[in-house]
Amino acid sequence: MDIFILSLALSAxxxxxxxxxxxxxxxxxxxxxxSAAVGIMHILLPLISMTAGSELHGLFGDILYSxxxxxxxxxxLQMVLSFFKKEERKKPAGLGMVLFAFGVSMDSFxxxxxxxxLGMDKSIAVISFGVxxxxxxxxxxxxxxxxxxxxxxxxxxxxxxLLLLIGLKxxxx
Length: 173
Fold this sequence. Notes:
Layout: H1 2-21, H2 28-52, H3 54-84, H4 95-104, H5 106-118, H6 122-172
Helix pairs in contact: 1-6, 2-4, 2-5, 2-6, 3-4, 3-5, 3-6
């Protein structure tokens, strides 16, 4: 039960970021791919960190957490700036999709470090993290696509501000 609650908590950022990114027009396949990418990152990053344990945190912990914040902040800033430009709205694709998934998965990396030190069962934890994150990302994308139809480009800018704030919080807190 603790792992499930932890999985929901770790997926909250993915849900919030998906709400912001989902303001852009995305097809179902793109939503599925982005949700899968986030789920996979929520499996890979804690698996790596649980394996490495406290050694890796001592070397890279704060830097990697800040890197996730920088990625989210830059994504949000780009979305806000696109509000002022007359350009076609783009959805995350390719490397942008991977970077987004990496950014929202950094909290699972640091959590994996803690769980690795405690000797938690890796397979149950990472599968729970991945499935929950993928589902919460899809829920955020689906919900925000309904909102974006009504909100239009201003809604995308608001989503960008949300991502920017989440990223700045990760960098400075």
